[in-house]
Design brief:
By secondary structure, the protein is mostly beta strands. The protein has strands at residues 3-7, 27-30, 35-38, 51-57, 64-65, 74-79, 84-87, 99-101, 107-111, 117-120, 127-132. It has one domain (3-132): Sandwich (Jelly Rolls). The protein has a five-stranded antiparallel beta sheet with strand order 1-9-6-11-4, with no helix packed on it. Strand 2 and strand 3 (35-38) form a beta hairpin. The radius of gyration is 14 Å and the shape is globular. The two termini are 16 Å apart.
Length: 133
Amino acid sequence: MTLRHVLMSGCLLALLATPLPASSENVQIDPRFNTVTVGDSAGASASPGTHLGYQQLTSLSAASLLTVPTGATSALIVSESQDVRVRDDGVDPTSAVGFPFTVGVPYTVRGNLALLKLIEVNPSATVDVWYFK
């Protein structure tokens, strides 16, 4: 299953995804909204939906998977203290390789959340995750 990442530097209620033509095979970038979409976005809603839970990750020195609640199809992810890197292709991210999630910026990820792996760029990262369906 494909995964959709939406990066927004705005509030939760302002989440939008208006992709432009692909800049590579499955990646679309829209600088107007600071948005990145990865993979097939068919069926994804711009609304975060019903809240299903919260998770805080504090041990990210090695690539870590999320603990996704049953039924969750999207997550709002914010790193509190350090930048993190993320991959969804089955390969572990490293502190230098992977999609960068900048500290303090909310990122919405839609799709198969169980594929998402995170790692800290520098020690002591704390990541907050809110799950939705």
